[in-house]
Amino acid sequence: MCNRKVPQRTYSVTNANLPEHLPLVGLGCSSFSSFFLSAEEDNDDLTVDAVSMEHPAVTGWIETIRHAVLNRGINLLDTAPWYGHGVSETVVGFALDTILSDEGCAQAQRIRTGSLARRDLIINTKVGRYEADLLKQFDFSYETTIESVQRSLARMNCSYIDVIQLHDPEFAPGMSVLLKETIPALLECKRRGWARAIGLTGYPLDVQHEILVKAASEFPNATVFDQSLVYCHNNLHDMSLFRECCFPSERSPTDSFAGFCEKSKVHLMAAAPLSMGLLTHSGPPGWHPAPSALKEACVQASKLCDSEGVNISSLALMYSLSH
């Protein structure tokens, strides 16, 4: 197993709420749940109420997190209550109890055996999307947002979250609930010290743009969003992150979303360089939302790479990192 450290890069020198440096790649934690397991794999015990450190899959996930943090220097973890409906956060918490020292521990009854200081690890999670049940999947209310952050802190046994992110706001019932309930709740979490920064993440770039514009207008005396996390827009089949756009709030083509964030002093992260499994030899999970034509194109691309002795995942990752 390789132990070479991943290089760090400068991230924020002007916003003290965000880390000054980040690893070139972070560790997305959605796969530390049943989300990417096949139907044949045993996942009956991988629920938030039943999951334990002794489960074979969980043991492997903990070792993956430990290796990434301690051996590879990947000190950025990104999770969410939606990932495994609480399982991912719980597994991250299991791993952190073996990595971190007691400094910044949220629960006195949980013993930590690690030595890494909390300040040396960047832990991001989200609010807004939760359960598999469609009627309970999304909740952007003030009360649920506050409760979700408290629950995340307990699951991961942390006294604070580095960046608390608004998750998939394109599914909110309207802009009003975000401006009147979700964002005030996130600002309150930041005020209480439960989170150091506030982020935004979702698929449609135009929705993120609208929220950033309206939040800045609604809260002129506060910095609402420190960071934007986008996914699947900086890879082999989609580079729209850097393409000039005509957002609904604009009358003519303007900067790319990346350019808009730079001008707005919103720090930008790009996730899912493998497009949630599309750009892999084994292909995406069954729930992947991509149209069939794109899935087939990625299959053909993978075969072409194989014929040239190239791993499509390695190629996809290098391509994303080159931008």
Overview of this structure, please?
- There is one protein chain.
- The chain is of the alpha/beta class and 323 residues long.
- It contains eight helices and nine strands.
- The chain has helices spanning 56-71, 87-99, 142-156, 175-191, 205-218, 257-264, 292-307, 312-321, and strands at 8-10, 21-23, 27-28, 76-78, 122-127, 161-167, 195-201, 227-231, 267-271.
- A seven-stranded parallel β-sheet has the order 3-4-5-6-7-8-9.
- Strand 7 (195-201), helix 5 (205-218) and strand 8 (227-231) form a beta-alpha-beta unit.
- Helix 1 (56-71) crosses helix 2, helix 3 packs across helix 4 and helix 4 packs across helix 5 (205-218).
- The longest helix is centred in the middle third of the chain and has 17 residues, at 175-191.
- The radius of gyration is 19 Å and the shape is globular.
- The two termini are 27 Å apart.
- 39% of the residues are buried.
Radius of gyration: 19 Å
How many E strands?
Answer: 9
**First-last Cα distance:** 27 Å
Low-confidence residue ranges: none
**Residues in helices, as a percent range:** 25-40%
Quaternary state of this entry equals: single chain
Order of helices and strands: EEEHEHEHEHEHEHEHH
Supply the helix-strand structural class: alpha/beta
Anisotropy-based shape = globular
Number of helices: 8
- Beta-strand percent range: 5-15%
Major sheet: order of its strands?
3-4-5-6-7-8-9
Major sheet: 7 strands, parallel
The residue-averaged pLDDT reads: 92
